[in-house]
Specification:
Length: 420
């Protein structure tokens, strides 16, 4: 709204109207707006949730301090969603296809998560929305994003190339002069940091490019589903998913800014993505919303985000990474999410395997998702392969250590862009 108002004011030579042309200014405005909105409406929404008796359903799993969380308002993800949408609508360029897709992803997954939380609260059912419906919703979003990237003429790239000067052998980064539709993405440890999905379908001959897009859409669906569910599983301790996601958001915002600027893209030798700089405005609102929510979600939490928040922030991270062609960096950047995912899958798989072989199921971890493993004391009667640490770790210490790991992973992600 303000972006288009400033565009109108420029015609009348109003001083300061040109500030809206700067991504850095609008991103800073989005960050401050989202933080302010989250802090202001957060308290009111929490009070309303308490009045409506929308409290967390807690099962006694023998974890220290767990039962004290019973009755804490949930569905706080509403705070995050509102704090993202309002700044984007005010200072975002709403005609930008990247911004449109991010807003769709936010509303889509926010609705899915809200339905899940509503069923839990209304029916007093801890399971909530059936898993198959969540998967359908996540797959649906993956299809929307993948097909839009294939069909939209506004989603293009300029491929980076290394050119060696024959005289002094100096390597210079250049770009193709035309924007093109491409199934290329960024991948570490290879020359030019580019990987083309179509290279895996070259056996299809004239249809190799179409095959590449089909493969890309499949990867998009997998990334959205895995990351969304990973964030959902990580949301088990006060501030854990919130802080971890904010760190990831900062890294992605920097990548979007670099990839949307041809000078910085050239320095890093990554593809230039025209128009993607608008995503920085969105991610600034995302970061501000999470920091504002963390004010109330930090230990001891006054509100939980619920699936309304966790499914949404995971999906946002996935879609954002896909739009800037960095989805293959997600396993590094979001390793915490995937380790949480894998810990559950490994636990269930090993339990079923040992029960089939010996008649008694055994565990790898004391408890999953992984963050709960550190809360359980060792040698407490649980037949698990990994008993360390023997003494339970305080919740706040687990959260901060996971944040530190998240910062380390973000740093590694950037380093990989310069390693070939």
């Amino acid at each position: 709204m303000f972006y288009y108002l400033a565009d109108l004011l420029r015609d009348y030579n109003i001083p300061g109207a040109g500030l809206m042309d700067y991504i850095t200014f609008r991103s800073g405005a989005a960050l401050m707006l989202s933080l302010f909105i989250a802090l202001v409406i957060g308290r009111r929404i929490i009070d309303r949730l308490q009045l409506m008796q929308v409290g967390e359903i807690v099962r006694d799993l023998g974890l220290e301090g767990q039962m004290s969380k019973k009755g804490t308002p949930t569905m706080g993800g509403i705070i995050i969603i509102i704090s993202i949408l309002v700044p984007c609508l005010l200072v975002g360029k709403l005609s930008n296809i990247y911004m449109i897709l991010m807003l769709i992803a936010t509303i889509w997954l926010g609705t899915l998560g809200f339905l899940d939380d509503y069923i839990k609260v209304a029916r007093k059912d801890k399971e909530g929305l059936k898993g198959k419906f969540k998967i359908v919703g996540q797959v649906g979003l993956g299809l929307i994003v993948g097909l839009t990237m294939y069909l939209s003429p506004d989603i293009v790239i300029r491929e980076n190339r290394e050119v060696e000067n024959v005289v002094n052998h100096e390597v210079v980064i250049t770009y193709e002069k035309d924007n093109v539709k491409s199934t290329q993405t960024t991948i570490p440890f290879v020359k030019n940091n580019n990987f083309d999905y179509a290279s895996l379908t070259s056996w299809m001959g004239d249809y190799a490019q179409i095959g590449g897009w089909i493969l890309f859409i499949i990867v998009t669906i997998l990334v959205v589903t895995a990351t969304s569910n990973g964030a959902n599983l990580t949301d088990g301790l006060d501030g854990l998913a919130t802080g971890t996601s904010a760190i990831i958001g900062i890294a992605l915002a920097i990548m979007a800014y670099l990839g949307g600027n041809i000078i910085y893209s050239s320095y890093l030798n990554i593809m230039y993505i025209p128009g993607s700089e608008e995503l920085v405005v969105y991610m600034a609102a995302f970061i501000g919303a999470l920091i504002g929510f963390l004010w109330y979600n930090a230990f001891p939490a006054q509100v939980f985000m619920g699936d309304t928040g966790s499914l949404t922030i995971g999906g946002i991270i996935a879609v954002f990474a896909i739009l800037i062609h960095k989805e293959l960096l997600i396993p590094i950047l979001c390793a915490i999410f995937f380790v949480e995912d894998l810990s559950v899958m490994a636990q269930v798989g090993y339990f079923k395997y040992t029960k089939r072989r010996t008649g008694e199921g055994k565990r790898i971890f004391k408890m999953t998702p992984l963050h709960h493993h550190f809360q359980k004391p060792g040698n407490s009667g649980i037949d698990a392969l990994i008993q360390k640490p023997f003494n339970p770790v305080p919740e706040s210490k687990i959260v901060i250590r996971f944040w530190i790991i998240g910062i380390f992973l973000a740093a590694i992600t950037f380093v990989t862009l310069k390693i070939r």
